[in-house]
Amino acid sequence: MEIKETKYSSGYGKPPWIFKGSALYQFHLVKAEIARAIIPKEFRLVEAFGYTLGGFFLANYSESPFGPFDELVAIAGIVWNPPTSHAWAARVYVNSDNACTHGRKEFGLPSQVATFSKSLTAISDRPQRNGKGSNVNIHVAEIDGPVTTGLYDIRLESPILKTNPLKWMALGPTIKMSLPSFSGHTEYIPQLLKYSCQIECRVKPTSPARVLGSMNRIESQNVELNESSKKREMSISVMLSKPILALEFNCLKMEVQPPIVVSKGSHHPLEHGYNN
Fold first, then answer.
1. In angstroms, rounded to a whole number, what is the distance separating the alpha carbons of residues 254 and 67?
2. How far apart are CA 39 and CA 45, in angstroms?
3. Could you give the CA distance from residue 257 to residue 55 in angstroms, rounded to a whole number?
4. DSSP calls for 14-33
5. Could you say which DSSP state residue 48 is in?
6. Which of 41, 157, 216, 255 is the one with CA 20 to 30 A from 81?
7. Looking at the chain, which runs of residues are DSSP E strands?
8. How far, in Å, CA of 80 to CA of 86, rounded?
9. In sequence order, what are the residues at sequence separation of 6 or more whose Cβ sits closer than 8 angstroms to the Cβ of residue 87?
10. Which 3 state secondary structure label does DSSP give 262?
11. Counting Cβ atoms within 10 Å, is residue 75 exposed (0-12), middle (13-18) or buried (19+)?
């Protein structure tokens, strides 16, 4: 396949694009029928007993080409494209207009601008060795023009590090890894793309975050949903799936390589159909 020189239109410097901060990578068992309604039909879904491995990546970047921002990536599942497998994002939420534009134009991601409202709640139902501790509550709401739609309430326990003399050990070992992903097949980039994120961080297992569907979300009651609403509903199904493992990434440095075109493809929205 001939690879042509790539032009970067978003004006945020040449790749690799570097992001620093912290993140939670949570794995869910996602029903195969939900994942198939999201991924392109030419892909083979990696599944077992009617489920695939999806989940979400929740990051807080202190440094990036766009400045500090938050990101939530709903991962529909794992797809097989020999000789390897890649993740497929159902939806990407960011609270930065520039990051949203970059994700759409450079990677063909289904990016949406959202708000991330954070609050702390003291833990009183169980003892803490290093203080009372607190839960971090994050309310995520999608912004679509003048309309703001509440989506999720994500609750995670805040790590207690300030009073821990061995806090660096508590962050876990340093690891390096590559996270390959597919993207594209959107109205922004109809071609199928693949790219990789080179990650260096300190990682440790943690308690899975609790994800609740927002009570403010408008439920569909015999109302035909438009394409954007259908995609949003499918990503919600992914987020509300059963969690099985959560990893906390601290001292995160992520280098995102530019995507390459895998196939020309075309954008056929929701051609699989989907029913809640």
1. 14
2. 8
3. 22
4. SSSEEEEEEEEEEEEEEEHH
5. B
6. 255
7. 17-31, 44-45, 51-63, 69-81, 84-94, 111-122, 134-144, 147-157, 174-184, 192-205, 210-213, 242-256, 260-263
8. 7
9. 75, 77, 78, 79, 179, 180, 181, 182
10. strand
11. buried
Residue 41 CA from chain centroid, whole number: 21
Placement of tokens 């309604």 in the chain: 37
CA distance 203 to 251: 9
Residue with tokens 């960011």: 94
- What is the amino acid identity at position 234? M
pLDDT in tens, the chain (276 residues): 333 444 555 567 788 999 999 999 999 999 999 999 999 888 899 999 999 999 999 999 999 999 999 999 999 999 987 778 899 999 999 999 999 999 999 999 999 999 999 998 876 655 544 445 678 999 999 999 899 999 999 998 765 444 444 555 578 899 999 989 999 999 999 999 999 999 999 999 999 999 998 755 545 444 456 767 777 888 999 999 999 999 999 999 999 999 999 876 555 444 433 333
Model confidence, pTM = 0.85
Please give the single-letter amino acid code of residue 179. L
CA distance 154 to 140: 8
Q: Can you read off the two tokens belonging to residue 34? A: 């939900």
SS3 of residue 172 by DSSP: coil
Between CA 153 and CA 163 the distance in angstroms is 28
Across the chain, which distance is largest between two alpha carbons, in Å?
61
Please give the DSSP secondary-structure letter assigned to residue 109: -
Q: What is the dihedral of CA 49, 183, 269, 99, to 10 degrees?
A: 120
Parallel/antiparallel/unpaired status of strands 84-94 and 174-184 = parallel
- Dihedrals phi, psi of 246, to nearest 5 degrees: -135, 135
